[in-house]
Amino acid sequence: MLTVFILDDEEERHLSLARRYPGATVTHAYKAAEAKALLAQGPYDLMFLDHNLGDWSLIDGEFKEQTGLDIVRYLIDNIPREKWPGSVTVHSLNGSHGPTMVSMLQKAGITAAYVPFRG
Questions:
Q1: Distance in angstroms (rounded) separating the CA atoms of residues 11 and 59
Q2: What is the mean pLDDT of the chain?
Q3: Taking the model in full, what pTM does it have?
């Protein structure tokens, strides 16, 4: 069975992406900490990542925004290769950080593409 992982802070995007894969097992994450915990349960066949998550956390005594870029770094640095996704689509509308996420994934050997979300 196809497994799909979606990271986005907007419920409508989750619903829209999940509808594209009827019958698939879809895992949803809305915040960075949630995504990190769920990545260890992989591998996932397909992964969809947003950049801007509206996720602010207290880190080292400061409030810092956690983004999809942080999740890409976490995936590459902390998740064993055998649990890496089959492919990643970065669907962020952030035209500067989205391509950066794809570049990092590709350099690590993960198939990735930048396809801004269009509903």
A1: 26
A2: 91
A3: 0.90
